[in-house]
Amino acid sequence: MAHTEFVGQSAEIPCTTTATINAAATAAATAAFKYKFGDEGYLLDYHGTKVCYPMYESLPVVERFQANDKDICIASFPKSGTNLMAAIVWMILHDGDPKVPHLEYALPGMPPNMLPANTLNKQAGPRVFYTHLGYNALPESIKTHAKVIYIARNPKDVIVSTNYFFRALKFKQFTGTVQETFQSFMNNVCAFGPYFDHVAGYRRHVSDMANLFFITYEEMVQDVENIIKRVARFLGKELDNMQISNIMRCCSREQMQNNHTTNLAHLHQLGLMDFNVSPFMRKGIIGDWKNHFSPELNRQVDKWIEQEQQRLHNELKGFHFQYETYNIAA
Ligand code: A3P
């Protein structure tokens, strides 16, 4: 791997999509979105995951996706640090600006041949892609063949991050508060939920799936060097110190906020997102929920977390969410 800078030269290629998808994004900027957040028809239950419109239109193609042993699948509940892990994995494998497609990505009326699941299917491995599908909704060949990296993030920060993201995503027409976003989580009407089943669905396979690497956003943010080394080992790649420090620099919050490949500024330019509400690359910290939760909301969220952790006690055994930054030197 060459030690080139990660400079975001390919502005037209967002890291979450491919060049072909970008062309469709331009068309979709003016296309009508049939269902917005909260509409009947906005969510479709697919093997236990509530897939949102228009992504669920890609599912027949996703179902036929054939993974092989070289493939790398990054799985997460949305807003859990997917793009950071995508950048790390891409840099370990290829160097340069990350181009990691979203497996079930779709825009209204997108021609099937433009769906990432279709274009990926035609590519030779190793392919790197990400998904927000829960474990039971994953194509079988991914579970049995691909290397799967799952990222979990504490639910309080995920709720806050989701609130900003949904309000900024114009086509969702979501104007809800953080409290209302929490209610959508609690009532299992959030995209790719239910949240706890998502985390627990992967967590329960940590001991029986050698091809699964389970990590938290908080671990990534607190000790990215260690995570880069561990991910590289999982992928069977040797990195020297220069490569590691290059990846650390390129995947830093500041770099990714300034790099137009990773900050997805083109979505603002296309009118799909309103960065005045929130940029795609927002704060990138642990514990921002403290700036948004009232004591009463925090009590409600804690109660929900406790109930859900009890319900999924077996699956989540030994796993603890991290809600604030710890002093790792202590
Ligand atoms: P916030 O909204 O809390 O800032 P995803 O990639 O799954 O959509 O997750 C988005 C969250 O990851 C956002 O959280 C974003 O700021 C954070 N993030 C993205 N890149 C990051 C980085 N390099 N370092 C720290 N956090 C990052």
Description:
This protein is of the alpha/beta class and 330 residues long. It has 14 helices and six strands. It has helices at 19-28, 59-63, 82-93, 116-122, 140-145, 155-168, 178-186, 195-203, 217-222, 224-234, 241-250, 253-258, 265-269, 295-311; strands spanning 43-46, 49-52, 72-76, 128-131, 147-152, 212-216. Strands 4-3-5-6 form a four-stranded parallel beta sheet, with helices on both faces. Helix 3 (82-93) packs antiparallel against helix 11 (241-250), helix 6 (155-168) packs across helix 7 (178-186) and helix 10 (224-234) crosses helix 11. The longest helix is centred in the last third of the chain and has 17 residues, at 295-311. 47% of the residues are buried. Residues 1-18 have low confidence and may be disordered. The site of adenosine-3'-5'-diphosphate has 21 residues, from helix 3, helix 6 and helix 12. Adenosine-3'-5'-diphosphate is lined by residues 76, 78-84, 157, 161, 164, 221, 251-253, 256, 281-284, 288.
Strand tally is: 6
Distance from first to last alpha carbon: 35 Å
Pattern of helices and strands: HEEHEHHEHEHHHEHHHHHH
* Widest β-sheet, arrangement of strands: 4-3-5-6
* Percent helix range: 25-40%
Approximate shape: globular
Q: How much of the residues is beta strand, in percent?
A: 5-15%
Structural class: alpha/beta
Low-pLDDT stretches: 1-18
Q: Kindly state the mean pLDDT as a whole number?
A: 90
Give me the number of helical elements.
Answer: 14
Bound ligands, each once: adenosine-3'-5'-diphosphate
Tell me the Rg in angstroms: 19 Å
Largest sheet: 4 strands, parallel
Assembly of the depicted chains: single chain
